[in-house]
Amino acid sequence: MKMHRRRLLALAGLAAAGLAQAQEIPPPVVGAPKILEALNPKDVVLDNPGAPGSSRPPRRDPAISLQVQFGFDSAELMLQGKRQLDELALALNDKALAVSGFELGGHTDKVGDAAYNVRLSMDRANAVRAYLIDMHGIAAQRLQAIGFGYARLADPSRPTAAVNRRVEVRRVSGMRPAPSTNRPANAPTPSPSDRLVPTPR
Questions:
Q1: What is the CATH number of domain 62-175?
Q2: Confidence class of residue 187 from pLDDT cuts 50, 70 and 90?
Q3: What are the pLDDT digits (tens) for 103-151?
Q4: How many Cα atoms occupy the beta-carbon half-sphere of 134 within 13 Å?
Q5: Residue 180: pLDDT above 90?
Q6: What does the alpha-carbon distance between residue 64 and residue 36 come to, in Å, rounded to a whole number?
């Protein structure tokens, strides 16, 4: 009886969250210039600061959190989400970022259990990655999807708020540019080490 009641309460909570999300005003779209400024700040050099012998302290890789709208309880991109990713793609294709790699971190609010939200956030991060690759031709090697669930709430004081449902785009240091597709016909075939791969941490 108690188990049945818990399930009913959980379903009621999900239904209430779905109704609340459906009534929310779509978040504003962040433009490509602002994304580019966040991911390519002029005072940050991605050359392993904080390494032995370096005078600079360690710094976090440049990042920006974007509210990308999905359908409730799904990884289906809504119109606002697609428009936001179109702006993100413009920034990622800018010459200042064209050879950089990026982590696409999916985050959820705190509705439902932890394991479910990790899966949902991973599905959404993969949906973002697929959209950028399929619709904007961004090289797959440049993008790494990861799901955090609700482990890193943007606003812990409001765990079910919309601000927690987001995609964090982080420029990853230690990435190498993908080989050019315009190399001469007699040029040697690039080795796997020439591809964009994350540096082990």
A1: 3.30.1330.60
A2: very low
A3: 999 999 999 999 999 999 999 999 999 999 999 999 999 999 999 999 9
A4: 7
A5: no
A6: 9
Residue 156, CA distances (Å) to 109, 165, 195 in order: 9, 12, 38
Residue at token pair 């995609």: 167
Cα of first residue to Cα of last residue in the chain, in angstroms, is 48
Domain parsing of the chain, residue ranges: 62-175
Number of Cα atoms under 13 Å in the Cβ half of residue 193: 0
User: Of 181, 183, 105, which is closest to residue 150 (Cα–Cα)?
Assistant: 105
Q: How many C-beta atoms lie closer than 10 Å to residue 117's C-beta?
A: 21
Whole-number Å distance between alpha carbons of 20 and 111: 12
Best CA proximity match to 97, nearest among 58, 136, 148, 155: 136
Rg of the chain, C-alpha, whole Å: 20
Helix (H/G/I), strand (E/B), else coil: 48: coil
pLDDT tens-digit series, residues 32-84: 999 999 999 986 555 454 555 555 555 579 999 999 999 988 999 999 999 99
The owner of tokens 């989400």 is: 81
Q: Are 18 and 109 in contact (CB under 8 A)?
A: no
